[in-house]
Design goal:
Largest sheet: 8 strands, antiparallel
Shape: elongated
Oligomer: single chain
Number of strands: 22
Structural class: alpha/beta
Strand content: 15-25%
Number of helices: 19
Length: 569
Amino acid sequence: MAKIHTLKISNYRGIKEFEQIFGGSTLICLIGRGDSGKTTILNAISVVLSPHWNHSFYDTDFFQGAIENPIEIEANLYDLPNELLGESKYGLHKKILVNNDITNDLSIDESEECQDILTVKLEVTKELEPKWYVDSGRQNQERIEISANDRAKLNVFLISDTLDRHFSWSKGNPLYSLLRLEEKGTGKNNVLMDAFRSAKEKVDNNSFSHLDSTVKKVKDAAAELGLDLANTQTTIDLRDLSIKEGRICLHEDDIPVKQKGKGSKRLLSIAIQKNLAESGGIILIDEIEQGLEPDRVRYLVNKLKVENKGQVFFTTHSSNVVVELGADNLFLMRKRDTVLKTFDSSFQGCLRNNPEAFFTKKILVCEGATEVGICRSLNLFRVRNGESNFALHGIGIVDGSGTNFIKYCEDFQSAGYDVCAFCDSDDDAINLKKKTLSENGVIVVDCENGNSIEQQLFNDLSWESVIKLIEYAIDENNEDSIIAQTSNQFEGTFPTDNFQTESKKLRIALGKASVLKVDKSKKKIDKSWFKRIDHGEFLGNIWFDSISDLSDKKLNDEYTILTNWIENV
């Protein structure tokens, strides 16, 4: 059954111009910020391939309400039903897909691997009357209208918040389409109408005896007026049954299925359409995670990925969905973009470790857990001071996990994200690559050469604030351990009053001790004081609460660069 190779959209809702080649992709997950246009893409597919003979459009469906510019949606389809490719249908209007390129020149080398393509196009002018065509793209050939019945053979349905109709047997609904497939397999036709007729017969034979006396009075009165109604009886008008077949719907224990919870209804609708897609077809799911627990949505996505025989498009804002997918299944939509951003296999590790980052606009890549905590603290500090929060700017925080730090920065930057790298300056491997990051557009926020962030804090903060850091470390560990680690890093004789007297040597020793790793039996043991997100949050609180006293310090420079990046200064 049909799949979409290429989709074009013009002047539809929030999209001015858009064109995307999906090629052979069969599982397409659209990600991006709210109002970026993801749902509009699903709706565009739904209406251009709609099984309904008509569709209501409004002035608000035009981009920025500009009704003088027509809505145009075009889908290039392959794997089409043979009945649509006959010369009596649309075969004379087909195009050819060769080496992933579409051409309307049919005189190609027969040795080339190729597929038939039909271009279905929807146009809506300011009169708000939609027209569907098959367009060959050949100047000497007029396009031909495609009927709703033929579009219905493509089996395209959208699962969204308005899916109750999916559980009735009305024409144009997935249940009815599934029934038609069953009829083809059995050679039977109009199974639903036969059921209506059978129900009518049973009702006629058993349900109207209590009306007989009234009917007799009517017949007698008519006879007195010269009208013979001797064979008149009460029955059901079959026309009303067929017109109102939408009232025949799925029930569970006499309760309509449409009264079930949102998650259950969405799963049932997907199950119906998954059966439709056994022979191919296109499933559209808006916000696939809605109403589902994390385990159920992950299982659902995995099933669609493994067992999909058609083509599935869905949107999501859930990291639980993203981690179940390959990088090649993700398509990023940004507001006003004319094409989707794709990802190759090199993003797979980044995707698994930072799925939530793919939904952001700007990414703050932190070298480790300490920096993550500091950035979380910065966000809260901004809120406390009446400044805009990270979410308003679409900022996500990513833990670079040390060894992955540079790669994450490079990957996100190459994907078009606005990236800021927040790191130490005590790792030579990272220091060597900072210049390249900056040249590629990454904003780098780092410490003075050779310093960890902890060392920078111990160097720059007031002694009163340094004492707070020491007291925190003692509470988390013990005083003897903190004193011993610091004295081992102190040049000269360690002060007898421990931490009471400020000195440059003591600040340096504290910085070194706070990031200490010891080698026991050739196995590094981390003895650092602040290498946790919550510890980093404490460091950040001390830092930012003291910012007014740091005007001539490196910490103030780092704060300024971070602030300017956050606010796009």
